[in-house]
Amino acid sequence: MNINSNTISTTEHTNKWNYQDFVWSLSLFGTAVGAGVLFLPIKAGAGGFWPLVILALLCAPMTWFAHKSLSRFVLSAKNPNADITDTVEEHFGKIGANIITFAYFFAIYPIVLIYGVGITNTVDSFLVHQVGMASIPRWLLSGCLIMLMTLAVVLGKSLMLKVTSAMVYPLVFILFALSVFLIPEWNTSMMEVAPNWGAMPSVIWLAIPLFVFSFNHSPIISQFTKEQRRRYGDNAATKTDKITGTAALMLMAFVMFFVFSVVLSLSPAQLALAKEQNISVLSYLANIHQSPMISYLGPIVAFAAITSSYFGHFMGAHEGLVGLVKSRSSMPVKRIEKGSLIFIVVTTWIVAIINPSILGMIESMGAPMIAAILFLLPVFAMRKVAAMKPLRTSALVQIFTVICGVAAITSVIYATV
Question: How does 312-323 read in b/e, with b if 16+ C-beta sit within 10 Å?
């Protein structure tokens, strides 16, 4: 009798929305809102207005279904403290765990390279257009910026984690303020471009990888899921579904408002120029607007967003590389840690000097691995692992999730062939 009473009480508690749920929704939301969002309008707007509308409608279910499935995957582990790697090892053995560790490193490491290029271009654009200086030699500017950011991580990890967490909400507020500020600049040039309905499916298909990257908050899913399991036990799936759904709706409303506001304030030619200059949309807006607010606030927000993203992804890439090398080498851990740090810093510096396309790097290097882990792995487990049977999503959700994951991977292959 007591057991039934406790179960009913727990169920009622699970179904009730509370302050902790709101905080977790904000945390998932904040994890996704990073530097990728600053490049999203350039790519998303390049295909025209109507494909952008369709992508906006797709982004919420695409984000929710994938993240709630990954959360359910973590819930399927016997150990309540298991993370994604532990869960993979339990279900697929050590070989599976090694594959996922390898894939996860190569999902995070390219993002560090992307931010090395992004921070160099942001600061260079700011110094030239807002400060009026001549360009500093690229090898020197990129080297100094990457070294300073890396030293900040190495010398104060706990402080950097607190700083980056605190930066999320001011960044979100400022981006929202900029979105509203741009409303008077809205024009119909984007909508006046006649849509090519025959080419629209391919336009949407090729844009999916950047949406996957920009809305991804999988790095925090393990921690989030373990906390819900601790609080709600066997009813945790109901709670994780609600929180991930709320975060997905928040992302759709906020990020797509920002994207539409930027796209409607610029012409297709201007978006193409921003892509050619390889800078974030905020840096481009700063260069063409006379408003002091955008001229100075835009690059500062871009700098803060890229820096905060660099901190988190650098730590993840470093830990992942150390883990990969440690499992295959008998070298002392300290030496592996130093070697891994030097490797990441030097390769990031080299790529920043070369200055490849940031959008190209996101699409070809970052998105495919994220899509494989976030969209395909949980659905595969639902079909193959007995422990996932009670946690399976509906067949329709599984099909939609797999289609999005396959689309993200195949569009990258198609674009690079």
Answer: bbbbbbbebbbb
C-alpha–C-alpha distance, residues 96 and 99, integer Å: 5
What the block records as the tokens of 300 is 């500062």
d(Cα 204, Cα 207) in Å, to the nearest integer? 5
Cβ neighbours of 46 (radius 10 Å): 19
Place of tokens 């592996």: 336
Instruction: Please report, for the chain, the start and end positions of each structural domain, with discontinuous segments joined by +.
Output: 34-416
Residues 6+ apart with CB under 8 A from 133: 127
Residues 120, 353: Cα–Cα separation, whole Å: 9
Nearest Cα residue to 262 out of 64, 15, 43: 43
Q: What is the pLDDT of residues 97-152, one digit of tens each?
A: 888 878 878 888 888 898 899 899 999 988 998 888 999 999 999 999 999 999 88
By CB atoms closer than 10 A (0-12, 13-18, 19+), residue 410 is middle
Helix (H) or strand (E) holding 273, with range, is helix 268-277
Q: How far is CA 285 from CA 41, 114, 270, 298, in A?
A: 12, 20, 10, 7
> The domain at 34-416 falls in which architecture?
Up-down Bundle (1.20)
Q: Which of 404, 123, 85 is nearest to 221 (CA)?
A: 85
Q: Which amino acid is located at 32 in the chain?
A: A
